[in-house]
C-alpha cells in the first residue's frame, strides 16, 4: 500500500491537478468571451465588424504599398546610387553583396528568392560587390557573400559567409530565415531560441558554435575556389 504514495505518484497527482487547473482557467476565459459576445447589442457588433474590416483594408493597402516599392521579389540593382534610393524608401532591407565567380553566392540567391516571396514586408536586393567599391569600403565588406541587414536606412547587422548558418553549404532556407529573424529585419514567427540547424543531424556533423571574434575582422573569401 505504501507504493501508492511514492514520489512519482505524488508528482503525477500534482501534474494532473496543474493540468486541470489550467484547463479550468482557459474554459472560464472562453465562457467570459462568449458571454461578452452574447451581451453585445447590434450596434456594438456592427462596430466590431467595422474595426475588423478597417484592419483588413489597412493590411491590404500596406501590402500594395510594399509591392509598389519592389518588395515580394529578389532583384538585382545596377549601381551604388540605386542602393541609396532603394534603402531610403523601405523600412527593412536585405542586400546581398555578391560576386559572379563565387559559387556560394548562387546558394544564397536560391534562398533569398524564396524568402523574398514569403516576406513581402522586407525588400530583398543584390548588388555586385566588384561594381560597388565605395559601398564595400564604407560598409567594411570583406567577405563574399555578405548580407547587409538594414533597418530605417541604417545597416544594423551582417550575415558574413555561412558562419551563422551552421557553417555548411547545405543550410536550409529556414536557417537563413531564422538568422534574419534574429536581426528583426523580417517578421519571424518561429522560436529565435531554437535555431533550425541545431536539429539538422542528417548531415552527420555536430555544429560547434565558432567564436565570432575570431572570424570577423579577417579578410577572406568564404568560397575556397577563388582568392
TrEMBL record:
Chief location of this protein within or outside the cell: cytoplasm
Any one annotated GO CC term: cytoplasm
Protein location: Cytoplasm, Cytoskeleton, Microtubule organizing center, Centrosome; Midbody; Nucleus
PROSITE patterns with a match to the protein in the record: THIOREDOXIN_2
Signal peptide range in chain numbering: none
Sorted UniProt keywords: Cytoplasm, Cytoskeleton, Nucleus, Phosphoprotein
Domain Thioredoxin: 53-181
Gene3D superfamilies, per database record: Glutaredoxin
InterPro entries: Thioredoxin-like_sf, Thioredoxin_domain
Any Pfam family the entry gives: Thioredoxin
Subunit structure: Forms ternary complexes with the chaperonin TCP1 complex, spanning the cylindrical chaperonin cavity and contacting at least 2 subunits.
Purpose: Significantly diminishes the chaperonin TCP1 complex ATPase activity, thus negatively impacts protein folding, including that of actin or tubulin.
Protein name from the UniProt record: Thioredoxin domain-containing protein 9
Gene that this sequence comes from: Txndc9
Amino acid at each position: 500500500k505504501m507504493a501508492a504514495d511514492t514520489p512519482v505518484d505524488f508528482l503525477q497527482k500534482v501534474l494532473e491537478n496543474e493540468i486541470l487547473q489550467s484547463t479550468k482557467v482557459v474554459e472560464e476565459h472562453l465562457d467570459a468571451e462568449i458571454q461578452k459576445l452574447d451581451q453585445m447589442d447590434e450596434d456594438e457588433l456592427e462596430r466590431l465588424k467595422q474595426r475588423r474590416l478597417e484592419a483588413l483594408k489597412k493590411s491590404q493597402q500596406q501590402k500594395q504599398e510594399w509591392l509598389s516599392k519592389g518588395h515580394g521579389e529578389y532583384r538585382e540593382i545596377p549601381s551604388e546610387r540605386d542602393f541609396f534610393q532603394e534603402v531610403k524608401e523601405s523600412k527593412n532591407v536585405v542586400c546581398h553583396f555578391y560576386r559572379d565567380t563565387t559559387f556560394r553566392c548562387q546558394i544564397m540567391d536560391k534562398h533569398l528568392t524564396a524568402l523574398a516571396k514569403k516576406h513581402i514586408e522586407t525588400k530583398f536586393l543584390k548588388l555586385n560587390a566588384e561594381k560597388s567599391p565605395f559601398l564595400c569600403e564604407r560598409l567594411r565588406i570583406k567577405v563574399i557573400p555578405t548580407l547587409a541587414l538594414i533597418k530605417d536606412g541604417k545597416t544594423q547587422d551582417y550575415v558574413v559567409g555561412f558562419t551563422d548558418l551552421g557553417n555548411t553549404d547545405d543550410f536550409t532556407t529556414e536557417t537563413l530565415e531564422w538568422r534574419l529573424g534574429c536581426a528583426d529585419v523580417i517578421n519571424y514567427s518561429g522560436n529565435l531560441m531554437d535555431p533550425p540547424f541545431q536539429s539538422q543531424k542528417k548531415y552527420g556533423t555536430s555544429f560547434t558554435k565558432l567564436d565570432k571574434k575570431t572570424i570577423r575582422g579577417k579578410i577572406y573569401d568564404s568560397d575556397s575556389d577563388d582568392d
